[in-house]
Amino acid sequence: MIRRKQRPHASSRPGPTAPAPAIPLSDPNAGPSGDPTIGNLVKDATAQASTLFRGEIALAKAELTREAKKAGAGTGLLIAAGVMLLYTSLFFFIFLGALLMIWLPGWAAFGIVFLLLLIITLAAAVIGYLVFRRMRAPSKTIDSVSALRDVIPGQPALDDGGARHPQLPPVRGL
After folding, report:
1. What's the superkingdom here (predicted)?
2. Is residue 112 part of a domain?
């Protein structure tokens, strides 16, 4: 079966098929006296502020995405360097044990290296524990959130140490 070439219809011809929107000859926000109304001015101001705010958010998101990619690449390289340092330290400690074998028997040389590593590990663990022990609660944030209770209307205040939440039972003694 041979198909014939169909003639183009009016809808397939190039060019506008629907009437183009007309350009208004007067301000659409203008009231009967020709001046824009307060409502239209407020509506336009809020729309423009919203557009500006969305634009700023989009700009910040684009900048932060670019910087986050750089930070991710830098973090990956630092992790790779740390892993390589860890592998390299193995050879250093073997070298240290072999060096001590010049003056001591092999078991004593590598025993000293083992004890040295154990002391370094324990010192790092104790220092890390002390750092975590010295950490304090975020007092400024707690004060700020506590101050919000006074600002937000309709929120019950805390009394006698109990926290109120609409879905949780009160907590006492914290």
Report:
1. Bacteria
2. yes
Q: Is the pLDDT of residue 30 over 80?
A: no
Residues 34, 46: contact at Cβ < 8 Å?
Answer: no
Task: For residues 109 and 119, give the distance between their C-alpha atoms in angstroms, rounded to a whole number.
Answer: 16
- Give one DSSP letter per residue of 34-70, joined into a string: SSBPHHHHHHHHHHHHHHHHHHHHHHHHHHHHHHHHH
- Domain of residue 123 covers 36-142
The verdict on residue 96 lying in a domain is yes
In a domain, 10, yes or no: no
How many Cβ atoms from other residues are within 10 Å of residue 29's Cβ?
Answer: 13
163: Cα separation from own chain's centroid: 30
pTM: 0.43
Overall number of domains in the chain: 1
